[in-house]
Design a protein that fits this description.
With 410 residues, the protein is α+β, with helices and mostly antiparallel strands. The chain is 57% helix and 9% strand. The chain is built from twelve helices and five strands. It has a five-stranded mixed beta sheet with strand order 1-2-3-5-4, covered by helices on one side. Strand 1 (284-290), helix 9 and strand 2 (323-329) form a beta-alpha-beta unit. The longest helix has 75 residues, at 146-220. The relative contact order is 0.07.
């Protein structure tokens, strides 16, 4: 149970900056209102004196500590209010400080303390008014009538009911704010993950090409320096393209001017560029197409492009093969089947990299409810990804047409 102030919800008088101001307002309301009420109750209640005004002011003074000690404050304010009534002073706004104290306790989790305090105070007042001898009572008339006691009970129940309603509303507001905050944090985390995945795929491919070309340049620089120019040209082109793609990824975070990135995200239309880059790295890539290609959502095309890019990067890094085959199977109207094969064998030694390439490809496929399988194939390695098209079910009709995925062993 926390006694700290809840910054997420609550009316102004429960906030730390309003503590003193609200206590002063409550004190003013109780003193002025009770003075006016006393004129109407001269026949059956004790007129206000110094002690009565002191009790009217003591409750608001205790409210100054309600944020830090809500439980003890509601007990103390209930005792002060009960003492005021037992002393025979006029009924009136004395319940206002009790209402604020009860809400402060309820809103901070002290519901049992609040209800027990108010119930006990009322029972004490009821018992003293009807069980004590008349001579012990300060009120000039006989014991308060039951209609008066019913009025006191109604006031107390109203105080509790209003405090419970406001507590519930405060909790709902706090829950909505917390849900919005969590949703914003989740969106931010997803955006960071997306950017990290994009940057990994861009840099892994480009740096692999640059690493390979730099090795070639080092081998040729002494005996064939004239051939180094070609390797450096590839390094320059690859690094320039990588920088452009990094700027594009970072540009998706809209700036203060709210402008969107000017260049489109990579898609399957850029596959020939990817093949050319792989060729610069010494890898011959052949692209095969089954069925008739069709437009896909931009994010789905980006995922397909990055999967092929990462698969070819892994061939460059980890395989001794100097060739690879990319298959794009469009024969199923429900989606696209991608397959990247290299004949192998695996290269010895560490090919570098973070080891997150396969994880990233699986995450990209899973983001669209797709599947990705990887593993040895013949003497080499195969990467196969099934990417469902959101509009594919409309084209598939009654479920026919998945023959392309099935034919290729999906």
């Amino acid at each position: 149970m926390s006694t700290d102030h809840d910054p997420l919800g609550g009316p102004p008088w429960t906030r730390p900056s309003w503590t003193v101001v609200s206590a002063v307002l409550v004190a003013l309301f109780q003193v002025v209102g009770s003075t006016a009420a006393a004129r109407q109750q001269q026949d059956y209640r004790v007129p206000l004196d110094a002690a009565g005004y002191a009790l009217l002011l003591l409750g608001p003074v205790l409210l100054l500590f309600r944020n830090r000690f809500p439980g003890p404050v509601v007990i103390a304010v209930t005792a002060v209010t009960t003492g005021y009534l037992l002393a025979g002073y006029p009924y009136g706004p004395v319940f206002f400080s009790l209402a604020v104290a009860v809400y402060g306790a309820l809103s901070r989790g002290y519901r049992r303390v609040a209800w027990i305090s108010v119930g006990t105070g009322y029972l004490v007042h009821l018992a003293s008014s009807h069980l004590l001898p008349q001579s012990w009572l300060r009120a000039p008339a006989q014991s308060p009538g039951w209609w008066q006691e019913a009025g006191v009970a109604a006031w107390l129940l109203l105080v509790l009911a209003v405090a419970e309603i406001m507590r519930s509303r405060g909790e709902q507001l706090a829950a909505r704010r917390l849900a919005r905050r969590q949703a914003e944090e989740n969106r931010a985390a997803e955006e960071r993950l997306r950017m990290a995945r994009e940057l990994h795929d861009i840099l892994a491919h480009s740096i692999s090409v640059i690493h390979l070309q730099a090795g070639v340049a080092l081998e040729l620089i002494d005996q064939h320096p004239e051939q180094v120019r070609a390797a450096l040209t590839v390094i320059k082109a690859t690094s320039k393209e990588a920088l452009g793609e990094v700027r594009q990824v970072l540009g998706t975070l809209r700036g203060p001017d709210g402008q969107a990135p000017r260049t489109p995200a990579p898609g399957l239309a850029r596959l020939p560029e990817l093949v050319t880059q792989a060729g610069h790295a010494g890898l011959t890539v052949s692209v095969e197409t089954a069925g008739e290609g069709r437009p896909l959502p931009s994010q789905l095309e980006l995922a397909a492009f990055r999967i092929v890019q990462e698969a070819l990067t892994n061939v460059i890094r980890h395989s001794a093969a100097r060739s690879a085959t990319v298959l794009m199977d469009w024969t199923s109207p429900e989606g696209l089947l991608l397959q990247v094969d290299d004949p192998g064998p695996a290269a010895g030694g560490d090919g570098g990299g973070s080891g997150n390439g396969l994880i990233g490809m699986r995450e990209r496929a899973a983001a669209f409810d797709g599947e990705l399988t990887v593993g040895p194939h013949g003497g080499g390695f195969r990467v196969r990804a099934w990417l469902p098209d959101p509009a594919g079910k409309d084209r598939a009709g009654n479920g026919a047409g998945r023959t392309g995925a099935e034919r290729h062993g999906r």
